[in-house]
Amino acid sequence: MKIRPEGEVSRRQLLQMGLATTAATLVPAGVESLFPPQALAQGQDPLPSWNDGVAKQAILNFVRVTTSSSSGHFVPPAERVACFDQDGTTWVEQPMYTQVVFCLNRVPAVVKAKPELANVEPFKTVMSGDRAAIAKLPTADLYKILGATLTGMTVDIFRDQVQQWITTARDPRWKKPFTELTYQPMLEVMSYLRANGYRTYFVTGGGQDFVRAYCDKAYGVPVEQVVGTMGGITFSYNASGKPILTKDPKLLLNNDNAGKPEGIHLMIGRIPHAAFGNSIGDRQMLEYTKSGDGERLAMLVIHDDKDREYGYGPALGLPASKIGTFTQALYDEAKAKGWPVISMKKDWKRIFAFET
Amino acid sequence: MKIRPEGEVSRRQLLQMGLATTAATLVPAGVESLFPPQALAQGQDPLPSWNDGVAKQAILNFVRVTTSSSSGHFVPPAERVACFDQDGTTWVEQPMYTQVVFCLNRVPAVVKAKPELANVEPFKTVMSGDRAAIAKLPTADLYKILGATLTGMTVDIFRDQVQQWITTARDPRWKKPFTELTYQPMLEVMSYLRANGYRTYFVTGGGQDFVRAYCDKAYGVPVEQVVGTMGGITFSYNASGKPILTKDPKLLLNNDNAGKPEGIHLMIGRIPHAAFGNSIGDRQMLEYTKSGDGERLAMLVIHDDKDREYGYGPALGLPASKIGTFTQALYDEAKAKGWPVISMKKDWKRIFAFET
Q1: Does A38 touch chain B if contact means CB atoms closer than 8 Å?
Q2: CA–CA dist B23, B20 (Å, integer)
Q3: Which residues of A touch B270 (CB under 8 A)?
Q4: B9 contact A CB<8A
């Protein structure tokens, strides 16, 4: 790296240090036209895994309009917030949420630590390895498993457990780490927004501490930018008198549905300028995003590519009973309100980085 | 402003845009000695309102050590978090917390909207204007007033109420807006830390939404960096179908005492590298901060200057019964553990910016 005179840093250095913003965000209103948005100025396509179309143009247009003071919809850098659902929006959520796989995989260790659970349901069924029986476990049993595997330990031990698991666990279809099943086109959107001064947040129904364990490495999202389902935390001292924080089996906020805008207010305190979701659990977040003044972007990812990923969203010509009426309702709302819909099949050139 | 070639920004531009960091934080390990910490490099004292002494040197040393890769205690920019208590640490908390003054001042409007409260305690006493009687209201009555004035409205209306009030309300002693009763030396510490890549957070027992209404203007702290006492938030739609968020009379987290490290984990997810407090409510935050590895700074502001501010902290030679045994206990802990104590009388050249 070339050493520059003290006090000057190149954009490349800024980008490398995660402090990237466009020149347009660093200069006062009026002169930004000298500094067109970052990726375009370099003549590079900032979204190379996207086919040209309404969805891609909506993203490019949103960034252009909100970072150009002459557009009339300029958003000051401090207010640039973009929120992403995770499961089904930035990585695969089929056949089971990754966090649920983690919880099931943790059961043997929990039973080893508490052998009396071996003959207690639902732990007995999970230990049997009978996939069909496990898939049929009722919701109440699932919550028992979540409680036993997501709470009761310190936040440090939990983070270590997740980080160790996620480097070794493999998805059943692609036989790859879950962190490689992130959608390359969405990673490009996140990078593009960050390069233009947006802070990218996860707003996920998943556990906040779970997502924090890998969000930086897998997505470039720092831990403080994860708004997730929050459990209680209890401060105490260990036997050596050192402060520790323990995860409680108490729900503070179910960060799904109406909980998403509630969590956004608690954790961020601003209405996002952009939000991306894929299911009915994202409805209120998308509506809340669009409730802000000026230019706001709400987008919906549709799972309509059963060959390259999974086909379970609306708009597949399937009867409502096959796709879930609630997701269909959100799709219909998006269409009615003009929110750009992202078709995985039509809009994405490739879905995963490992595709050739 | 001189227009530089695209892709280059000067440090001054960075500073002006609030994206300041030292050059030392922007270059890889090994070359940082070419870029000594920001303020010192310019030959300016970054803490001009501080007298030289142990407290000032502790702050300067902390920044030097954690931003110099050769120190062995370099902290990557993404991990630089500094937490500040507000009441009594960055602004005056006597004779009453500012938020409590706001709540009392809001009572007439609440009674006007609900006239049936005029003859109901504690509203009747507050409406009487009898200061002595108001000061004697029991805690349960105070909570009724907090509930009636801090909840039940949308987050937007509440923010507007606080912002309107705080521009007009005056402190009884100095007859100045409360936002001018911020401690100039602490504002300098916050700016100095930010100029060196630290994100400065409030970690306050005060209401999160209350502090968010003025934190940016008064302290340069953005709304997402306020960890405060959190109430429930409910998402719904107004009569026009627009999403709204309403403040509930439900406590999610009492961000005081053990609640401070719990709130830090929920909102930030990192152990701070520096924390500043002044009362027993800050004890666990300071202990938690020191529990992290490497260089960590925990500092305690002592109110020992009754002429320029108030004298109510420990170390005044007063009997414990006069100063509160719990605050004395924290002072003793700080001394025993070597946490630098800040004497307002000895360490601060001036307390307020309006002093000549």
Answers
A1: no
A2: 9
A3: 223-224
A4: yes
